[in-house]
Design goal:
186 residues; mainly alpha; 69% helix
Length: 186
Amino acid sequence: MSKRTMTEGLSFLLANERTKLIHGVLKSLYLRPSDDDYQDCFQEGCLLFAQAYCDFPQEVNEHENDLMHFAYQRIRWRLLDQRQRASWQASHCECSLDSPALSPTQKELLFLDPASNSPLAVTAKNDLFARLANDCTTKQRNYLLSVVVRHLTDSEIAQYYGVSRQTVYQWKKGVVAKARQILKLR
């Protein structure tokens, strides 16, 4: 069996109305042609089909139904994963007290306004977090907010701020030390 190419996969998809498979996947994900991102997802699905075509372990002409099932599952899972990731990112706003987008008054209101439902304000209502955030240096506060609000790993934090993981580890050590200090005072 020779190595299949993406071009062959796309040609195979476009022949004999096989694009219905992509439309079926999108329908199963509750995407309608009138949705803004439908065409983008359709194009992504076509590329995923071509990749599945290349990766299919059996002879395509003899096992076309198996290929279609294989491709359907791969496309559906990849698109579902992409949509869930996008949804998670949209629901978890980027918050930082050092953000130039926030005025000093807005920063104060995040901590002082009991009616605020921002992720940062909800977390700040916790007394330990508020005391810890106030006692931390700017870098330690960035670490704390990245972990608590953005749910980032140390590696992701390092990448986000453009520093080494060792630097992030130092920030983490400082936050843990200050948290222990606050807990001893209670």
